[in-house]
Specification:
DNA-binding; six-stranded parallel beta sheet; 43% helix; 434 Repressor (Amino-terminal Domain); four-stranded parallel beta sheet; Rossmann fold; homodimer; elongated
Amino acid sequence: MWPNRIAINEEAPMDSSSNSNMDASTDQVSESSRVTIADVAREAGVSKGLVSFALNDRPGVSAETRTRILQVAGALGWTPSLRARSLSSKRSFALGLVIARDPEVLGSDPFFTSFIAGVETILAPEGLALVLSVVPDSSTELATYRTLVSDGRVDGVFVSDLRQDDVRIPCLAELGLPAVTLGRPDQPSPFPAVSIDDTEGIRESVRHLVALGHRRIAHVAGSAAMLHGNRRRDAFTAAMRDAGLGDGQVVDTDFSIAAGADATRRLLRQSEPPTAIVFANDPMAIAGIGVAQELGVRVPDDVSITGFDDIEFARYVYPALTTVGATPMVWGRAAATTLLTLIRTGHADDVELPAARLIIRGSAAIPAER
Amino acid sequence: MWPNRIAINEEAPMDSSSNSNMDASTDQVSESSRVTIADVAREAGVSKGLVSFALNDRPGVSAETRTRILQVAGALGWTPSLRARSLSSKRSFALGLVIARDPEVLGSDPFFTSFIAGVETILAPEGLALVLSVVPDSSTELATYRTLVSDGRVDGVFVSDLRQDDVRIPCLAELGLPAVTLGRPDQPSPFPAVSIDDTEGIRESVRHLVALGHRRIAHVAGSAAMLHGNRRRDAFTAAMRDAGLGDGQVVDTDFSIAAGADATRRLLRQSEPPTAIVFANDPMAIAGIGVAQELGVRVPDDVSITGFDDIEFARYVYPALTTVGATPMVWGRAAATTLLTLIRTGHADDVELPAARLIIRGSAAIPAER
DNA sequence: GGCACAATCTATACCGGTTTAGGACGCCGC
DNA sequence: GCGGCGTCCTAAACCGGTATAGATTGTGCC
């Protein structure tokens, strides 16, 4: 909306052959020669306040004056100062995302990068920024939220990786910070939830495997402390019962690749191993394929494998992974719009994204005769 | 340094059974009941200015008064307002990272999440935040840097994924924004570079393969437009020549998994395929293993494969990937400290991280007889 | 003509810090 | 007794916007 032209550097240009004269405190070009609202006011022959009104499309300015002000602002190359705006309006024009995970584990899970990309598509056009924190554990996590609030660093936050009785919900509610939860919490929550049905995908996986002829199907579940881990696990058990196959064997993990590999090893080394394994996420499923191959168990002939997420690798491992397609970018977009609505209007409805569906590739097939 | 206690909410607690009364404009607890420097001044019986001096450890305050002020500030639970500080001091207390990549591709590359985690370990204790932007292409990228500067959103930026004749260098120099480049640019640059020698790892890979008895070794290179793609490619060719094996076959890609898979397919379908392939990154190498298996080419018996990065998956695919171990977290830490030094002192020296070394696992072995 | 009222605009306080110009005071030397 | 100087402190300007009270003008209506 505002002209985005950068003021021309009126200082001597930086000596590009050395970095010793880089004085950060004085060289901030566009800061030192900043055009302020007062300059615009003077030039347009009106008061500061009126300029502010005109620039914010607020009533009480005649059409004629408004256009003149806008024109002058454009001519002078005026850009609003985010800092000044932050101070007087008590907003920060930024949203926050705090991720509490071991960075090593985090790296293998492309969920967040895609999610962030989705968020970004909404924020960037609005001139909002994303403040990201990656912290190692959940205690640091709460402290980080507190700091974000007391610094007034963000206007709202995304709450991901919901856990059972998640302390963040009451804590954020008390802090009074607008938030959006990724998924529906298991407790009363004052915040809108943006969720996706991931149980249907698990049920589809089980039905698919049953239809192929599998009866001994196991589930490598995610963390029992995480809601989506539990949800998928419950969906698995329910689907197994529906198929008349009992509860099915379930191994709990923490969603990490290492744990997925361990779980697979344990399952396949049993005297009567499963003929199919439903993994709670793709990284574990891919590790599972690796372990099977290492043990000389053929995939999918000896053991069928399904994953969850449809990460890019899923299409490129061999055999290509049959998995449930999540859409983290869409999720990011939805979460961002919801959070913005909440911040701006004080209210936002829950959003339910289309259920994640099964994508059939090569890692699940008719079980070989034994 | 300052007491971090959150002011107690003096409003009625939020009704946690409904989200309809969530009024973002009035409920910002710690904002509405903020203790300001004026409160501290009044309570301590001194002027605002003196409080500021005392809190910033500046001379001109008697020891006695200083301690009294600090004590009062602590008692009142005072927290400096980042917004006010930003406005008057013209700093933002945040650093920026702009990543220009297709989010799908980005997700498979755990480099950034680890890098960010490393950056975070430096920033968090200093009370600084990281502003992250993920943009789809490099034209949006420049615009994003411009916005970050003109908004005064950050005090400095990280420049990653250096390209040939990278426009970002002169552009950022002109904007006067402190920056640190990840790797050394191929042009004069006013910014400190934090780099790692990735050529030694490639040379080691080639030497390792040659020692195993390979002679037809190919390289699936990264993007020719990216400096690290070129560097690894040149290192490969040089190492091949050193071994008296000519230049070696090289296929250029864009570092993406899909391109890596394609390249492998092309290489292996030749009448005289290579017996070993050196990949410029792990995701492509893993896709390479998948393609080989799909084509019925055994790894490592028929074709040996090496990667670069040592992403977590590398240990869990089968056969486990022989690769070069990068250390993105260390890199993040070094880059953050360097950028902070630059911002604070106006100068920072280049940093050279310890060279990435080869990690031998199962994907490279003595070639089978043909 | 006079009054109510809306539309337009100005002046100014305000957000919460930092920074600067100076004032009060004590101590020194001459 | 007085100028000079250092220490400790206050008052006020300032950063660049937003918000509000009130001045000015024009119009409609009786």
